[in-house]
Amino acid sequence: MQLATVSTMLTLESGSKVFQGTVAVDAVDLTIAEGRTTVLIGPSGCGKSTILRLLLGLIEPTAGRVTFSGTEVTPAAGPALRRRMGYVIQGGGLFPHLTARENVTLMARRIGWSPDQQQSRLADLSALTATPDHIWDRYPVQMSGGQRQRVALMRALMLDPEVLLLDEPLGALDPMVRADLQADLRAVFEQLSKTVVVVTHDLHEAAFLGHEIVLLRDGRIAAAGSYATLQNSDDDFVRRFLAAQPGAGSQ
Amino acid sequence: MSKRTLFAAIALGVLLVVPLSNDVVGPRIGSKKFTESVILGELARALAESVNVAAVHQRELGGTRILFEALCAGEIDAYFEYTGTIEREILSDQEIADRAAMQAALASKGIQMSRPLGFNNSYGIGLAEARAAELGLETISQLTRHPELVFAFTSEFLDRGDGWPALRDAYGLPQKNVTGMDHDIAYRQLANGAVDAVDVYTTDADIAYWGLRVLADDRKHFPRYDAVLLYRADLEQREPEWVTALLRLEGSVSEPEMRALNAAVKIDRKTETAVATEYLQDQLGVVVAAAEDPLLVRVGKRTLEHLELVRLSFMAAVFVGLPLGILAARRRGLGQVILALTGVIQTVPALALLVVLIGPMAALGLQSVGTGSAAAICALFLYSLLPIVRNTCDGLRGVAPDLIESADALGLASRERLFLIELPLASRSILAGLKTAAILNIGFATLGALIGAGGYGQPILTGIRLDDYQLILEGAVPAAALALLAQGAFELLDRTLIPRGLRLQREA
Lengths: 251, 508
Known about the structure:
The complex is a heterodimer of chains A (251) and B (508).
Chain A (H helix, E strand, L loop, with lengths): L7 E12 L2 E12 L3 E5 L6 H9 L6 E6 L2 E2 L5 H5 L2 E4 L11 H11 L4 H14 L16 H13 L5 E5 L7 H18 L2 E6 L2 H7 L2 E6 L2 E6 L1 H5 L4 H9 L7
Parallel strand pairs in A: 3-8, 3-9, 6-7, 7-8
Antiparallel strand pairs in A: 1-2, 1-4, 4-5, 9-10
Helix pairs in contact in A: 3-5
Chain B lengths: L2 H15 L10 E5 L2 H16 L5 E7 L1 H10 L4 E5 H8 L8 H9 L3 E3 L9 E6 H7 L15 E3 L1 H5 L4 H8 L6 E3 L2 H10 L4 E5 L4 H4 L2 E4 L11 E6 L2 H4 L1 H8 L7 H12 L5 H13 L10 H36 L1 H16 L2 H14 L10 H24 L3 H10 L3 H31 L12 H10 L2 H29 L2 H8 L1
Helix pairs in contact in B: 2-12, 2-14, 15-16, 15-18, 15-20, 16-18, 17-18, 18-20, 19-20, 20-22, 21-22
């Protein structure tokens, strides 16, 4: 694979986040490459979800800065910038008072897309995510967990964002649905060749989805690189983390 | 906006804008909250009718201070007062030597006083006949022998210049167990034996009705309470015929006559209107049709008055309460203050709140007492705030943080997030608050009758005064029905305004 043309989409430059005296993220330098899938992984409390929120500008770094396509992410730039990013929160975050269609088209309607434009985008998205049409008029409470995740993914993709960020996208699903959706997700990422950041605690998922894997520990980067790089690491923590989830990467 | 939402919005708009009852036109006579005053008020209204003046009787507005202030503010044009009350209460800060001095003092406030109507309605201390006999009590000075007696006096009597404190000092009365109580309730307590003595008016039919013995004022503490008409000086120019007709009452109502009129209402259960018209016909030869509304018309009128109070106060509470609730949810510190303040308002007794509000409302040039009283509407507005503010705030604070984060991540601006996401998600809680406020408001609005604001409270208060359960039910039953109706209406509104996805969520 040619790596020479890879350019930078998102960066965190010595970014720190302190919550009420507790350091969640400690001077992390992170570069998310365009068109690649980067997985942030680590034990719970390692700061991976906080980094995702920093990248989105949902929270402000205590120190350091975030840039997106060369622009600094600030609270003032917030809403406008976030419309160029797609975010799937843990659990999907679908609005229970809106149907699948209303959830997915919410922002498109706000910025004045025509009904035809919306409809054709919905058709593309349901084809992409293998979602049946009958889902569109259902409310979240009427959908299965897998369906909700697909709708949440479509909502994030609706405005064709430059980057897609997912926080534990498969976290709450049962194993069968999880395996299906995992495969579908990778297919979607590959088809769109988008910049993707995924947060997970699951090594199988990281190995399956990620071009780059960033292993975090106590708010710092413990290791970064491809799964193979990590496997060859002689760092004690990395070895222990990998050993705790045997069989990863054996698909 | 869906069709149903649009329909609901239009219905609300209509409810807000269309006036339910006409503004009061024509000159106004006021009356205090006891039978005699209401009968005199009806006499005055009927006399106006006899000279083709469409005067309005603002019934049962309250006590002396409310009536006199309403007269000075021009909210009423006339009412009947007693000379002793004028001397000891209204002009208590001045030395009044004789009637000429009294007239001069009143004239300086723009008020005219008629000659006495002819009867003296003094204060007295009344005991149940059996109890008085058992204790051997005939005079007030004998009360010094029984310090254990329990007294229940009207709040006005407890407070007046000629009332309890002066009486106690004049006779050296030792009783310590003295409580304030509504007059009509005090009579019942006396009949129950819960209290031993109450203050009475000597022309009151209640003395015969409840079988009371009135103790002699052997030290002549109480002055004469000759009934007189007080009216605004400008009324003579505005309605000269009415004033002439009213002054025909001077010297024409004797004490036995007044007692008989009071008894006709209290004991024979005739209406004040009927008693007044009969009297005018028999004694003054003035023929006026006793216009009594049939039950349904009466209830209909009061329903409109009641709805007017509820509607204006409730709408104001919605328009102020929702933004306050939103503010309280967004700014924690300020929220604590807002919730504490609206909570404190709830603890203020209704009568106190009403009376406190009369002054500012009159100062604003709003009608402070009587039908459609701005003070009553303002009090109801304040009482309705808490459930609306609290439920709006709680509803918004209860929106799941991940949904807020999703909204932010989508790039919704703060305002869009509020209207598209947070308010719909909080709608169940907000509507529950509105429902509570509306139902409370309908109940509280009956208290508006304490200052003559009309509505269902009026027959309830009159019924208590006349010991007439049928009349009490005439107000209580429609009030309860209206509350149930409001409950039903809000359940329909729930189906319109709570998003379907949330209702499904509850069923799931």
